Structure formats: C-alpha cells, structure tokens
Amino acid sequence: MEGLDVDDVFHHYRLCPTEVEAVTYYLPRLLSGETLHGADKLIHRVEISGCEPKDLAARYAPAPQAVSSGDRFFFTTCKSKRGSNLQSVRGAGAGTWSIQKTTEICHAGVKVGEVKNLSFKKKGKSTGWVMEEYRCLLPEATVSDGVKVFCKMHLAQHAPDAARQESEAYKLQQQQPEAVTPSTHAQKRPPPAAAADPHPPLTLPPQPTITRTICW
C-alpha cells in the first residue's frame, strides 16, 4: 500500500481479528507491551468491570469502518469473585453480562485459548449489546484479581433503536464547543485620558514697563 503509513492502516480498514488471531497475536502482545502497528490505537486499556455498555459507548468511539455495528475493543481485567477463581463478576450498573456460551479455540489441533460470548441484559431482557471475551493460555495473563482478557463489545445483529442511539452517544462528546480564551495578541485598550485639573495654576498678565525720563 504505497503512500499509506503503517499506523494509518487501521483508520482505513476494519479491525476484525479472527479467534485464533485474538488469542495468539493480539492478546500476547497486549500482555507484553509489544507494538501492534497501529491497531493498539483502537484498543482501549481500561477497566470495564462494572461499566454499562452505554457508558463505554459514550466515552469511546467505535473503531473505523465499524460505526454501524459499534465495534469497540478493550484490553481489561476480568475480575474474579471473592474467594473464587472460576466465577467472574458480571454485574454492571443496572444490568448483568450473561454468558451465552464458552468455546475452545484450537490451532493446528492444539487448544490455544477460549472465547466467551456474552449478552448484556436488564431485568432478564437483552439490551442489544453483546461481547466476545478472549482468553489465552499464557501464565502472565493471570493476575492477582482476575485474568487479563481482550474484548470486543458491539451491537447485536438486530439491536433495538435504543441500543443504536447509545452507540452514537460519543458524538455528543465530540460536538462540545471548545472553551474560548482571549487572544494573547489582542490589542490593548488605550489608557483613559487624564482628567483636567480642577484648580489650574493662575497665569498673571504681563506687567507694564515704566520708563523714567530725567531732564538736566
């Protein structure tokens, strides 16, 4: 792609990793801090545990070429419940992330990770937000309070209008006017004219010259 910088590639092409790529390429590099050649600009390193999708959607814009589906990518910690390393905390605001299924990811006949498909629900009903949560088998992915995961949050195929409006909430943040500051080069106002002296000094009229003539 002549004339196109590597870091600009993901601004023109949709970030859509396969399951194998998610756990064998992206997640290991996110854990080690290696560069992702531009894709890291689209992956937000933020703790999303306890956050509702609408709040995340208002804060982070969807990835380029994925505005209609609302794709947002996160590198985060899936926190474990207190006293358990198996069950994960799924409550988020007034709703809950419900695990729909867990699938093993294999490459060349060997398990390399797994993906959990989740749906965000309120009062038992789907809101139209879904997420794929990818986990690898690297030991460094396990931390003291949970497991480091790579997530893709997006709209379901038949998401209701309410969810689609939530996905576009980031536009309101972008449209906020910038604070207006006075120009440092603004012309200074001239100082006010000095007030007239109410008691000006008296000017005496010129004195007449007296010439004496002496007669002899």
UniProtKB/TrEMBL annotation:
One Pfam family cited in the UniProt record for this chain: NAM
Keyword flag DNA-binding: yes
SUPFAM superfamilies for the chain: NAC domain (SSF101941)
Main localization, broad class: nucleus
Any one GO CC term of the record: nucleus
InterPro entries hit by this protein: NAC-dom, NAC_dom_sf
Domain NAC per the UniProt entry, residue ranges: 9-156
UniProt-recorded Gene Ontology molecular function terms: DNA binding
Compositionally biased spans, kind Polar residues: 172-184
Keyword NADP: no
Region described as Disordered: spans on this chain: 162-216
Record protein name field: NAC domain-containing protein
